[in-house]
């Protein structure tokens, strides 16, 4: 229970396996203005880094007020509905005709 009523309540919105997905999702959420905490069992980050099984699981935790937006972004990420701006720029470049320098 929060001691200070002004402090935000944090909720787990997703659990993923391993650092790769957790760090990608952290970057996605933070770039959208959503604060993120990653929580992993202590043994999962030992000298012998665990990458499979329950010890590799990382919880993605956000303030309750961002819960819905975070879940929507994460769902879009896993569904492949997010495109980078760079991909759009490259598609536009392919439609530009060459200029004859004659």
Task: Provide a concise account of the structure shown.
It is built from 3 helices and 3 strands, in the order E-H-E-E-H-H. It has helices at 19-31, 67-79, 85-93; strands at 10-17, 37-40, 57-63. Strands 1-3-2 form a 3-stranded antiparallel sheet.
Hey, roughly how much beta strand do the residues contain?
15-25%
- Helices and strands, in order, run as EHEEHH
* Whole-number mean pLDDT: 78
Q: Strand order across the biggest sheet? A: 1-3-2
Query: Major beta sheet, specifics?
Result: 3 strands, antiparallel
| Secondary-structure arrangement, i.e. CATH architecture of the domain at 10-79 | 2-Layer Sandwich
Q: So how many helices?
A: 3
Instruction: Give unreliable regions as ranges.
Output: 98-102
Quantity of strands, as a count: 3
> Helix coverage percent of residues?
25-40%
Q: What is the rounded Rg?
A: 19 Å
How would you sum up this structure, described in words?
The protein is an alpha+beta fold. It has helices at residues 19-31, 67-79, 85-93; strands at residues 10-17, 37-40, 57-63. It has a domain at 10-79: 2-Layer Sandwich (Alpha-Beta Plaits), CATH 3.30.70. The chain has 3 helices and 3 strands. It has a 3-stranded antiparallel β-sheet. The relative contact order is 0.19.
